[in-house]
Amino acid sequence: MSAPVTPQEHAVAVAELLAPLRARLIEPGAAETVPIARAAGHVLAADLTSPVAVPPFANSQMDGYAVRASDVASASAGAPVRLPIGAASAAGDPIGVHVVGTASPVMTGAPVPDGADAVIPIEQCDPAHFIGLGSAAHADDVPPGATVGFAAPVEPGTFVRGTGTDLAPGAIILPAGTRLTPAALGSIAAAGLAEVAVRPRAHVLLLSTGHELRAPGAPLGSGQIYDANSSSMSAALAETGVDVTTATSPDDAEALLTLIAAHPDADLVVTMGGVSAGAFEVVRDALEPAGVRFGHVAMQPGGPQGLGLARIGERELPVVAFPGNPVSVLVSFEMFLRPILCALSERPALRPAVQARLAHAITSPAGKHQVRRGALREDGSVEVGGPSSHLLHDYARATVLAHVPIGVDALPAGAEVEIWRIDE
């Protein structure tokens, strides 16, 4: 990485570095079993089949009366059919037996009694309310001789959710590689499964470096600043579905190597700061001899970068090294690491990208790909902020990243640029 490389070339290099990690995580033998209560966001390691029918019995889609369609086939507004009221069925009741020539009160989700093949909503009945039924009432509370009228025929199957209409026994609930969303977990629970086999999550060790850093809430001494990068990047990494451990290293190469070695479960090390050409570049001093390459990407912000396999004891551990300025860290993450980590957990890898008109003229260094924070106006144009890599508050208010490609040094108001939506 001696001569500057393009952002596209560096993105490919990062993807190649992490390809073995992806291959290892998707191996069937790497799967782990977790309770569904802790499975949200995980990715299924294998096809998941249903051991039961869902629903396990025919149930009613409406509050109403279960009937045999043939018993009301002749019903009309001028000549309604009246049927004696039979035994009621509420949610949780055992499946009953429908008596031919009667109408069985049935509640939403309750079993449709065997022998009935349709449900007529209570609003279409006469009377349009249940007779003698209340909060704990069943058939014994229906007055003797009570009947209910129907003014229209009904097709068999109307408002009946048949056994197995959602899932048949042995059907695939979800295929391998599915990320477990709330709806997916509900479907799994409906099939009676309490745990699932999922791919292991990548474990990322996130290292912030610098004697000047203090944790938020701690008192600041002269020349000290609060550590913003650990908070922003740990949140950004967590959104991709990886497990994150955050640590801070002093400006000491041996201490940095010791800190990495103390986390043998890490699959990937991401560092922030200490990668440029200064006199106190601790990450470079520690990891370049271990095998990590450092250099520049033709990008602003985020030019200094590092990547490679670091020999840490008996391990070779992939390292992605970002610069330390807060905006540089986040832009580097968006450009090079977020797409790969999102793909590991079957999340959309790319930000939504569209073209937008500039609300004002901008300049850009012609030899670099510039990434500017901005916001969309109501008229669809984009207003971009300054390019400086320390302007984190501008980033916090941004809704888009605007891209000015290499070779462009100025764009007038109204010119179109590619933007990535970062608010979705």
UniProtKB/TrEMBL annotation:
Coiled coil: none
First-level EC class: transferase
Keywords attached to this entry: Magnesium, Metal-binding, Molybdenum, Molybdenum cofactor biosynthesis, Transferase
Protein name according to UniProt: Molybdopterin molybdenumtransferase
Catalytic activity: adenylyl-molybdopterin + molybdate = Mo-molybdopterin + AMP + H(+)
Stored InterPro entries: MoaB/Mog-like_dom_sf, MoaB/Mog_dom, MoeA-like, MoeA_C_domain_IV, MoeA_C_domain_IV_sf, MoeA_linker/N, MoeA_linker/N_sf
The protein's Enzyme Commission number: 2.10.1.1
